[in-house]
Amino acid sequence: MTRTTVPITTLSNTSVTAKPALTAITTPADGMRVAAAGNSDNLVVELSITTSGSSSAAISVAAGDNPPAFRAGIGALAYETSGSASDARYILTCESARHADTSGNIDIDFAAVVTAGSAAAYRLPSGL
After folding, report:
1. Helix, strand or coil for residue 118?
2. Which of 116, 110, 114 is nearest to 55 (CA)?
3. How far is CA 16 from CA 11, 13, 68, 104, 125, in A?
4. Residue 39 CA, distance from chain mean position
5. Could you read off the pLDDT of 40-74 as tens digits, one per residue?
6. CA separation, residue 101 to residues 14, 33, 65, 68 (Å)
7. 3-state secondary structure of 114
């Protein structure tokens, strides 16, 4: 299983940042990885997914590994799409203390009905 790695674009509160192209999720069944490197502060993930038919789909931000995620015991954070064939979402992934794996990255998994998708990750400026 090889997850699609999605890089993080850091936004600025003093200049305009060009919107990056979404990264295609190569194999939705394998999920994706946000390359957070241990810092998920102010992290927002933009997802655009396609599901088979009119099925809703579960999207899960995986629980991390302890250590470094000392709050991993809380478990994964689950979202449910609205059931349309194409659904764009913004997901606040929460803290690295809950979701970081041993490399400090954050994994997101998709239900089997997700047939295609793309994603981008953004780090909001501090102090907003």
Report:
1. strand
2. 114
3. 8, 8, 33, 28, 12
4. 13
5. 888 889 888 888 876 778 889 999 999 888 999 99
6. 32, 10, 5, 7
7. strand
Stated pTM of the model: 0.88
Determine the length of the chain. Answer: 128
Half-sphere exposure of 72 (CA within 13 A, CB side): 16
Smallest CA-to-CA distance from 23 within 39, 3, 41 is with 3
Is residue 33's pLDDT more than 90?
A: yes
Question: Strand 58-61 to strand 77-80: parallel, antiparallel, or no bridges (unpaired)?
Answer: antiparallel
Give the dihedral of Cα atoms 73, 33, 3, 19; nearest 10 deg.
160
Helix and strand totals (H; E) in the chain: 1, 10
> Is the separation of the CB atoms in 118 and 28 below 8 Å?
no
Domains of the chain are 4-13+20-123 (2.60.120)
